[in-house]
Amino acid sequence: MKKAFLAICVCAIFFAASTVWAVPSTNVPGGWTYLNADTILGYEYLQQGNETEALTFANAVLAVYGMAPTELLNGTGEKITFQAGPNDIILDPGFAWVYAVVKVDGPNDYSYLFWDTYAAGGDNILQTPTANTFPYNMIDTNSVPPGPLGISGITFFGPSSVPEPMTLLLLGFGLVGMAGARRVFKK
Q: Are 71 and 55 in contact (CB under 8 A)?
């Protein structure tokens, strides 16, 4: 009995310390995965497109998928703006990122949450699908001539530095198990 209890405690500690179990899958149900672009996790109509609104949108989408929340890079977010924006891009921002909210301006004002998963390697290069590839930057029939809308800005996000509650819970169970094992062996 004592050996089984000790084995369970050791397994719990290794499980809590492991980061492999916490890595989200790149096969996200409901997301849009492309062969030559990063994954779109969701899109929404955002009026202002500021960092706070983009962060709220990103964390709401991540919560739907059961993924850990994100936070602004360097406390304020790394934001790139375009005057006359392109329709689709391949952009190396020069720093590591995990998620990006791409704001497309026009009558629909959609923002798209991208996950850096291109070729499942996380290459830190933002690559959008070609404009008018569902659901990204669909053709605006109100413009003359009709065509995809321009990108006005991109806000980049990194992983959350706040520990996940489940990780802390598992670590706590492991510590309690070790204390219990020590108490059993002392007797």
A: yes
CA distances from 131 to 137, 139, 145, 164 (A): 5, 8, 15, 36
Q: Which two tokens stand for residue 129?
A: 């699908």
Per run of 10 residues, the mean pLDDT along the chain (length 187 residues) is 66 49 40 82 79 87 86 70 75 85 76 76 81 77 67 81 66 84 79
Question: Residue 144, exposed/middle/buried by CB under 10 A (0-12, 13-18, 19+)?
Answer: exposed
Count of beta carbons in the 10 Å neighbourhood of residue 109: 16
Question: Cα(37)–Cα(86) distance, rounded to whole angstroms?
Answer: 16
- If one counts every other C-beta atom within 10 angstroms of the C-beta of residue 128, the result is 26
Taking phi over 0 as left and psi of -120 to 50 as alpha, with beta for the rest, 100 belongs to: beta
163 prior amide bond cis, ω within 30: no
The structure's pTM equals 0.65
Coil/strand/helix, residue 99: strand
What residue type is 65 in one-letter code?
Y
Mapped onto helix, strand or coil, the DSSP state of residue 40 is strand
Domain ranges of the chain: 30-165
- For residues 85 and 96, what is the distance between their CA atoms, to the nearest angstrom? 23
